[in-house]
């Protein structure tokens, strides 16, 4: 690989990481707004909603109700064990190296929330419908 190709890939890779970071925050915000109204319908009281964990081979999402809003945490599996990759209560993404892995773990979170809150699919349908309107 020559220096120009390295430069090109560094620029594209950096832009991709920035885009993934934005999309992670966008998805978390959207999921938060979809799930918050479902908590009282799914659990008797907000206190009954303690902490849900959704795990796959390389990531483990934890979702719980904080003082004011839903909190999300993503732990990533490495050879040395689990490492915190993302949390809404601790300044978002901890390390730029983790962005791609957290991004790739978003389907695990969506699948888990769909099982805990089956009504979520109705709540996000308008967003899915809007995805067909405009694609950059």
Textual characterization of the structure:
With 136 residues, the chain is of the alpha+beta class. 48% of the residues lie in helices and 22% in strands. The chain is built from five helices and five strands, in the order H-H-E-E-E-E-E-H-H-H. The chain has a five-stranded antiparallel β-sheet with strand order 1-2-3-4-5, with helices on one face. Helix 1 packs parallel to helix 3. The model has no long low-confidence stretch (mean pLDDT 89).
Describe the secondary-structure layout:
Elements: H1 3-35, H2 39-42, E1 51-55, E2 59-65, E3 70-78, E4 81-87, E5 92-93, H3 99-116, H4 120-123, H5 125-130
Helix pairs in contact: 1-3
Main sheet specs: 5 strands, antiparallel
- Whole-number tally of structural domains: 1
Number of helices: 5
Q: Over all CA atoms, what is the radius of gyration?
A: 17 Å
**Roughly what is the average pLDDT, rounded to an integer?**
89
The helix content, as a percent range, equals 40-55%
Which strands sit side by side, in order, in the main sheet? 1-2-3-4-5
Query: What structural category characterises the helix and strand content?
Result: alpha+beta
Please give the number of β-strands.
5
Order of helices and strands: HHEEEEEHHH
Q: Which of globular, elongated, flat, extended, rod-shaped describes the shape?
A: globular
